[in-house]
Amino acid sequence: MDFGSIFPFATEVGYIGLSLVSFFGSLIPFVPLPSFLLLATMSVGDKFDLHLLAILSAVTATAAKVIVFSVSYEGRRIMSEKSRKRMRPFERLVKRYGAGAAFFAAATPIPDDLVYVPLGLAKYSPKRFFIATLTGKFVLSYAIVFISHYMGLSLVEPLLEDVEDVTTIYIGIAVFAAMMTSVVILLLRLDWHKIMGRFAPWTLDENNEDEEKK
């Protein structure tokens, strides 16, 4: 099976289709893979403008992540005090690296919501979050576009040689999403006071100056 079989409609959806998939794919927490695959597929050949593909992907993905961040920013109000107390040390840890953490999460294919949700809960600066995330998404989108265009997916297609049914790929994406959801639930339930107390005791300080930074 070739890579294009995953999204056989890629050449037909156009820029609007990519924008919608990128936005809603990024809006659903911890499931960034489908939009990346569509972007890579559309980057092969000369039918679409490479710069426009990268820009649309980066901007729409960032818009979705701003919503995720904003919901988390306000979400602390609906969390129980017990859950908030468990999460505060982890929030301080992520917040200390703020923009750097947001940029790294955006510029790499990791499930970035693992960073964005704690940043929102920690009341990190929305402006800094937006700039770091948009910059990172531009880096990632351009990397995907240029690698896919100039290398013709030669790095990926060998992995699909033994895959006969595209349904297998879709099932893999669903399993990955379920796994990441489980990871997030685990993160929310862990006692970060005990964990951070051993590896980063400064995160236990309620008066830590990082708590007040924006």
Report a brief summary of the structure.
The chain is an all-alpha fold. The chain has helices at 10-27, 33-43, 50-75, 81-107, 113-121, 126-151, 167-189, 192-199. It is built from 8 helices and no strands.
Give structural notes:
It is a single chain. This protein is mainly α and 214 residues long. The chain has one domain. Helix content is 69%, strand content 0%. The protein has 8 helices and no strands. It has helices spanning 10-27, 33-43, 50-75, 81-107, 113-121, 126-151, 167-189, 192-199. Helix 1 (10-27) packs antiparallel against helix 2 (33-43) and helix 2 runs antiparallel to helix 3. The termini are far apart. Mean pLDDT is 79; it is low at 209-214.
The ordered string of helix (H) and strand (E) elements is: HHHHHHHH
Number of helical regions: 8
Distance between the termini: 49 Å
State the assembly state of the protein chains: single chain
From the alpha carbons, calculate the radius of gyration and give it in angstroms. Answer: 19 Å
